[in-house]
Amino acid sequence: MFRTVAVLAAVAVVGWIALKLVFGVAGGLIGLLISLAWLALKVMLVVGLIYWLLTVFSPETAQKLRDSVKL
After folding, report:
1. What is the DSSP letter of 58?
2. Residues in Cβ contact with 45 at an 8 Å cutoff, skipping those fewer than 6 apart
3. pLDDT tens column, 44-57
4. How far apart are CA 43 and CA 38, in angstroms?
C-alpha cells in the first residue's frame, strides 16, 4: 500500500512539472505572438495615417504610390 501511494505521488510530481513546463513555454509563445500583433497594428495605423494625409494633401502622389504598390 505504501508503494502504491509513493508511485502515485511520483507520477503526480512528474505530471505537475510537465504541466509547468508546457504552460510556461506556451505562455511565452502566446505573449510573443500578442506583442508582435500589437506591433503590427501600430505599424498599420501609422502607415494608414501617412497614406490618408497623402490623399488629402497630395492626391497625385497618393495615386503614384497606389499604382506602384499594385501588382
Report:
1. -
2. none
3. 999 999 999 999 99
4. 9
Residue 1 CA to residue 3 CA, distance in Å, equals 5
pLDDT at 26: 85
Domain ranges of the chain: 2-69
Sign of CA dihedral 36, 41, 46, 52: positive
55 class by beta-carbon count within 10 Å (0-12 exposed, 13-18 middle, 19+ buried) = middle
Residue type for position 53: L
Find cell 511565452 and name the residue. Answer: 28
> Do 62 and 54 contact (CB within 8 A), yes or no?
yes
- Alpha carbons 37 and 20: distance in angstroms, whole number: 25
